[in-house]
Write a sequence for this structure.
């Protein structure tokens, strides 16, 4: 169906013919024009080429080996998770391609122009905390590299100030500043960086796997002596697939932040296909070789590729491996943990914060929380960040149900930027109380499933259960009386530069 063109609103300021509210609209929140969108299949593929091969994901997948899953079982778990992610990311990505709007604005459709702050803030807080933590983890690799090149620098690693040594502070602040510089150039620079980093990390991790395979004498251990069998094995496979999707619960929620610049739906499908199921199988093969080789060598299971990098005997190759891990971690951090809070802050303060300023504020917040202390606190990681993460499933379910099942993709884009009672997304004083009513109980259930020990057997599926419950409750209470209109945002759109 061809979307209607929006009509100027009579009686408004001639300089603002569409009556757009300055508290809802700025150049970064505006929809992107269809012409000139730069994100093609390769750009989307490189997002996943970086993110799938993150250190955190390697630690998770190697953990499956340690928990008793063998080679083919790990591949099956990752394959199932990849297939589900491919479907979910397409659903989320198509929304951005059609409307050209970022996630905080997308949330206005279901939650209202003011109620949208709920999902945006939850996503933004999680991202800021993980931005700081991932920068800290990268700084640990950076410290290894500095000491390898300049051995006397180890003396700077012996003291402590606010939880970090002098060398730790130097490493952290350099990487922190580098990311702020990249973000200051906008989404196009992030896209270019991801395109550069993708091949670098794929080649590096494959080379590391080949080196370990040779070190192990050309053979690997496919299983550990504690390998699971029967029902326990299948439950572990399904649990691994579920947790794999949960890891990406943040991304499936705000994937539209990237696909609003996508050239076409075909670009999204192709980029997702090669970047998710295909790339995840390659990732799984590397995991099996790394973990199986190390187990074959000395009977131990590594926790992360960084453990292997530290054992590289040649200083030059150690430095190259460290640089590749730094390139990777920055790429993952930019896409997964920096873009979301930028749009959240811009949505909160559209008159004050543009993309660059919001990026600086996000970075400062990521520094002020002293993330290394958060990372070292199981209570913070499990109950605070874990709790916020559990809320992402219900939010995803509600937003998807509203867009695909209630409205059937019919969106009045200009009304997303208007603050008037008669507009489509004003609801009750800017809040859709029906969405909030569906979110509250589904969020409570998701939190219970994630944290109460008696539900440990289904904790890995808490994201799915929360998303399903959120969608189901919303479908029960949603208002189906309005005749939804499909109005293009092209007349109020801006060039795709962010």
């Amino acid at each position: 169906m061809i979307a209607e063109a929006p009509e100027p609103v009579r009686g408004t300021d001639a300089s603002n013919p569409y009556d757009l509210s300055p508290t809802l609209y700025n150049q970064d929140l505006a929809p992107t024009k269809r012409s000139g969108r730069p994100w093609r299949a390769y750009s989307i593929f490189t997002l996943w080429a970086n993110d799938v091969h993150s250190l955190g994901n390697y630690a998770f997948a190697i953990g499956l080996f340690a928990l008793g899953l063998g080679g083919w079982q790990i591949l099956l778990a990752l394959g199932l998770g990849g297939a589900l992610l491919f479907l979910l990311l397409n659903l989320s990505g198509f929304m951005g391609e059609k409307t050209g709007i970022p996630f905080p604005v997308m949330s206005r459709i279901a939650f209202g122009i003011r109620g949208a702050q709920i999902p945006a803030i939850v996503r933004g807080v999680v991202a800021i905390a993980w931005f700081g933590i991932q920068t800290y983890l990268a700084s640990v690799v950076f410290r290894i590299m500095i000491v390898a090149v300049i051995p006397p620098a180890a003396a700077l690693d012996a003291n402590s100030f606010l939880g970090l040594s002098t060398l730790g502070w130097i490493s952290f602040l350099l990487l922190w500043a580098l990311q702020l510089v990249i973000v200051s150039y906008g989404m196009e620079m992030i896209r270019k960086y991801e395109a550069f980093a993708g091949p670098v990390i794929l080649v590096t991790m494959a080379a590391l796997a080949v080196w370990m395979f040779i070190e192990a004498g050309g053979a690997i251990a496919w299983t550990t002596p504690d390998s699971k069998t029967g029902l326990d094995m299948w439950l572990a496979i399904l649990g691994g697939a579920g947790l794999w999707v949960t890891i990406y619960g943040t991304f499936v929620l705000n994937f539209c932040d990237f696909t609003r610049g996508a050239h076409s739906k075909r670009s999204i499908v192709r980029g997702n296909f090669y970047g998710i199921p295909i790339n995840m199988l390659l990732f799984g093969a590397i995991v099996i070789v790394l973990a199986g080789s190390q187990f074959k060598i000395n009977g131990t299971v590594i926790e992360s590729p960084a453990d292997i990098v530290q054992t590289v005997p040649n200083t030059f190759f150690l430095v190259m491996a460290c640089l590749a891990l730094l390139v990777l971690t920055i790429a993952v951090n930019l896409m997964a943990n920096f873009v979301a809070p930028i749009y959240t802050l811009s949505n909160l303060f559209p008159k004050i914060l543009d993309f660059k300023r919001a990026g600086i504020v996000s970075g400062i917040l990521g520094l002020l929380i002293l993330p290394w202390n958060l990372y070292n606190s199981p209570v913070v990681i499990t109950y605070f960040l874990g709790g916020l993460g559990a809320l992402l499933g219900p939010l995803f379910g509600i937003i998807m149900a509203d867009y695909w099942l209630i409205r059937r993709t019919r969106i009045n884009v200009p009304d997303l930027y208007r603050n008037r009672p008669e507009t489509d997304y004003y609801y009750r004083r800017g809040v859709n109380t029906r969405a909030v009513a569906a979110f509250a109980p589904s969020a409570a259930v998701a939190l219970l499933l994630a944290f109460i020990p008696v539900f440990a057997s289904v904790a890995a599926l808490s994201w799915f259960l929360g998303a399903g419950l959120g969608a189901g409750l919303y479908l029960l209470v949603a208002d189906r009386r309005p005749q939804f209109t499909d109005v293009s945002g092209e007349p109020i759109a801006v060039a795709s530069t962010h």
Q: What stands out?
A: The two ends are 28 Å apart (CA to CA). The mean pLDDT is 87. DSSP finds 19 helices and no strands in the chain. The CA atoms of residues 439 and 475 lie 12 Å apart.
